[in-house]
Amino acid sequence: MAQIPSSPNPVATPQMPTGDLYTLTYSNSVQGWPSFYSYNPDYMVGMNNYFYTFSGGNIYRHNTNEARNNFYGVQYNCSITTVINEAPLDNKLFKTISLESDSPWNTSLNTDMNNQAFINNTWFELKEGAYYAAVKNTSQTPATLSEFDLRSVNGIGNTTGFTMTNPRVFTFTVAIDSIISIGDYLYYLNEFTNSPSLAGVITAKNATSITVDSTIPGATNPTTNTPLMMALKNLIAESHGILGHYSIMTFENIGPARAELFAVQAQVMKSDP
User: Fold this and answer.
1) Rounded to an integer, what distance in angstroms lies between the CA atom of residue 5 and that of residue 59?
2) Which end of the chain, N or C, is surrounded by fewer C-beta atoms within 10 Å?
3) Residues 151 and 226 in one domain
4) Which candidate, 244, 231, 241, 94, places its Cα nearest to that of 152?
5) Are residues 55 and 109 in the same domain?
6) 247 and 123, same structural domain?
7) Tens digit of pLDDT for each residue in 186-201?
8) Average pLDDT, stretch 63-83?
């Protein structure tokens, strides 16, 4: 998009109402409105085979260079949303995504069972002309109660005490199991809510103690001196796909370069309880 010089004192244009505004385009071939654009011009006109828009008293001519999604000096991302809903009555695990594209796209997935996943464009691998990536769950820290059913929780036992300064050290009379790893999240049973609360992320451990960083967002002080402790695995690291009857997928491309997304495939398997 190129700006055409205007007069030194452009006439002020009326302000459009606030809210989510889009510019829609009509396609004769599909007899519909397939595209939504992020820019909101004051006026649009086609003239001499060119498309012009007006914004803030300035006139712009579109499609004049190779830069994509740059309107009035603002760079936008482009996104496509679709749904995979074959056999909608079956519970399914969405395992992998394949993109028939000339570049990988950031991908987010949501299912009707409130499961979410995100695939960074750097996680895709080019194999036989297509980009492949495993579907990895996203999670919150601290974990919500609904997440505990989907993640690996390992009970440790009651601590015999802990230090009050960071890094916080929790000591135990029982041996720390080898399944508990650095990078896991340490939780304690909150006696007031009777639910797990975050103590910190594990940074070190030995046979009878665990050291955590208690300064991470959401971490709190244990409510008793000897709370019941448990370790929670990172959900992204142990992902096995997301569960749902269908999945809504959004693909986002970042930057002004040309990008083409021809087709999307998903590896899906039926989930048997």
Assistant:
1) 7
2) C
3) yes
4) 231
5) no
6) yes
7) 999 998 888 899 999 9
8) 87
The answer to whether 143 touches 128, Cβ cutoff 8 Å, is no
DSSP string across 89-104: TS-EEEEEEEEEESS-
Per-residue model confidence (pLDDT) at position 114: 65
Over the stretch 230-267, which tens digit does the pLDDT of each residue have? 998 876 766 777 888 999 999 999 888 888 999 999 98
* 195 residue type, one letter: S
Residue where one domain finishes, among candidates 76, 106, 130: 76
User: Which contacts (CB < 8 Å, 24+ apart) does range 235-238 have?
Assistant: 235/137, 235/138, 235/139, 235/143, 235/147, 235/150, 235/151, 236/136, 236/137, 236/138, 236/139, 237/183, 238/151, 238/152
DSSP 8-state assignment for residue 14: P
In the chain, the number of structural domains is 3
Range of the domain at 90: 79-138+239-270
Do 86 and 218 lie in one domain? The reply is no
The proportion of the chain whose per-residue pLDDT surpasses 70, expressed as a percent, equals 86
Q: Are 235 and 117 in contact (CB under 8 A)?
A: no
Same domain assignment for residues 207 and 251: no
Task: Assess whether 224 and 151 both reside in one domain.
Answer: yes
Q: What is the pTM of this model?
A: 0.65
Specify whether 57 is located in the same domain as 10: yes
